[in-house]
Design a protein that fits this description.
Layout (H helix, E strand, L loop, with lengths): L1 H15 L7 H4 L9 E10 L4 E10 L4 E12 L2 E13 L1 E9 L5 E11 L5 E12 L1
Antiparallel strand pairs: 1-2, 2-5, 3-4, 3-6, 6-7
Length: about 140
């Protein structure tokens, strides 16, 4: 009986050591990654015929001018060679899509660069992201 009481007491003490944590409290600590760009995306997909579809997009926190440039690169001889680029400019948001035929046996990447400007044309921020595919 004494052993049972000690065992129950031990479980009670161990159980009271767990402190509940509010998981939502941590969400409030997340800070923006960039000052003016709220979202930036890059994607490359290559179909079975070898046509690479390259997309990129950028959104800003306010009504800023944003220019988005999508660069397609091919990895050859330990270097990234640029094959093609596409761009678009808009207010608050831009999306760019381009297609290009690629050769089998290489690695390709899309780099998306977003340039944010104020109303006077002064550049406020430049950000980039990449996506990679093997064909």
């Amino acid at each position: 009986m004494k052993r049972l009481l000690i065992l129950l007491l031990a479980f009670f003490v161990m159980g009271s050591c767990f402190i509940p944590v509010d998981a939502t409290a941590r969400e409030n600590l997340i800070q923006p990654r960039w000052s003016y760009v709220s979202e930036l995306s890059a994607n490359i997909s290559i179909d079975w015929l070898g046509v690479a579809t390259c997309t990129g997009g950028a959104d800003t926190y306010g009504s800023y001018t944003v220019k988005t440039v999508v660069y397609l690169h091919q990895y050859v001889d330990s270097e990234w060679d640029m094959l093609k680029s596409w761009s678009a400019t808009g207010i608050s948001s831009t999306g760019v899509e381009g297609k290009f035929a690629v050769a089998r046996g290489y690695t390709y990447r899309v780099t998306v660069v977003a340039y944010v400007y104020d109303s006077n044309g002064k550049i406020l921020e430049t950000v980039s992201t990449t996506d990679t595919a093997i064909f």
